[in-house]
Amino acid sequence: MHKASQTLPDSYQLDNEFSMKNPRRMLWLNALGFGLVLFFFWLFSEIVAWLRPDLNMVFTLRADSLQSLVIQILAVIATVIFILVLHEGVHGLFFWLFTRQKPIFGIGLTYAYAAMPGWYFPRNMFLVIGAAPFVLISLLGVGLIAIIPPNLMTLLLIALVMNAAGAVGDLAAIAWLLTKPVSALAHDRGDSIEVFVSAHKASSLQKL
Q1: Measured on CA atoms in the order 168, 170, 171, 172, is the torsion positive or negative?
Q2: Residue 182: CB partners within 8 Å, gap ≥ 6?
Q3: Which of 185, 25, 14, 207 has its CA nearest to residue 108?
Q4: How far apart (Å, rounded) are the C-alpha atoms in residues 197 and 195?
């Protein structure tokens, strides 16, 4: 099976599940996400320093008045919301490219998602869908670093960090899927990813 399909082959059976409803997993992912915020802030700051050595970046909110401070805070909030929507939108775009059908979008307690219930994706195809926002938005952002006006650099850095660190769930799912056979099929339900494998390769059912 080399294309996404709404029909699960007869020889396939459920092998495992990566659930976002697992409290222990969510605790670890949130802790890891915080660590990634620090890492990617350092990484993208170094890229800014390399590409724009003329800038003396000081990452603070500067305000001459309460109104100016409020505007800057609202700009940060708008940036975070925008990058969240863009991140899930890229997932949705790749779901659409592979199925030509509209995905669903939703928000969980500590995460947002794009999903395609009822569709089964070859493992490597699903890896592309999972990695697309992290890779494409990061590359686009690094390109913008070289040309964006200095007064917008802090917001761009925030967007890049939030996109990369916010991909912690995607990256964890990707690492998990890489342990599955290439022939495996992934079914995204939004709050969980089910993996189906050919019967002779299936392990005993367990939920991680």
Answers
A1: positive
A2: 122, 123, 124
A3: 25
A4: 7
Q: Which two tokens stand for residue 96?
A: 């659409």
- Torsion, CA 150, CA 154, CA 156, CA 160, rounded to 10: 140
| Residue 189 burial (10 A CB sphere; 0-12, 13-18, 19+) | middle
Q: Which of 180, 176, 173, 174 is nearest to 196 (CA)?
A: 180
Place of tokens 């925030």: 158
With residues binned 3-state (H G I as helix, E B as strand, rest as coil), the percentages for the chain, rounded to 5, are 55, 15, 30
In the chain, the amino acid numbered 189 is R
Q: Where are the domains of the chain?
A: 12-52+64-201
Residue 206, both tokens: 């367990």
Q: What is the mean pLDDT of the chain?
A: 89
Q: pLDDT tens across 103-148, in order? A: 999 987 778 899 999 999 999 999 999 999 999 999 999 999 999 9
Place of tokens 């916010």: 166
CA dist., res. 14 & res. 61, Å (int): 50
